[in-house]
Amino acid sequence: MKKIHKILILLVVLSLLIPVSQSTAGKKPKPPGDEPKPCNGIPFTEVLNENLSGFGEPAQGLINNEKEWCEFWDKVYALIEPKPPCDTTLIDFERETAVYVALGRRANSCYGVDITCVTKTGQKLEVDYDEIVPGKNCFCLDMIVTPVEAVKIEKYEGPAEFQHHIKELYCP
Asked: Least enclosed by CB within 10 Å: which of 35, 112, 155, 171?
């Protein structure tokens, strides 16, 4: 009888963890009418998105060469052992630039970051990003996370301005 009890408790615990893994992967259903804002910017492609990184403090920036990319990579994967080797095939620095946003330390597994729009306006680049925060009914793991995302855009060298927005994670 005790063995059945332990199995039932294990199943209940596992069933509670499923929504957590879905919420951190951004696969939770969206509330009605919560379509993304239109972005009339330049095309971009996500190349990296991690919730556990070596970025303990907020950071944003542009990367235009392999040396800077590998320094960024080493910081992203500073908490991983063994650290994966720098993947320089993700971006062609002759034609592309990496844009990244790191949130720094956050209190639980429901936090995340999402670059939503990259726009060239005059002589500068504007990067909009959402800080994903826990919603009202979210079940989040109590753990420190350090979210970071990087995208690639067509080659750009110049100033950039980053616009921070808050987006609540929807948990029905």
From this structure: 35
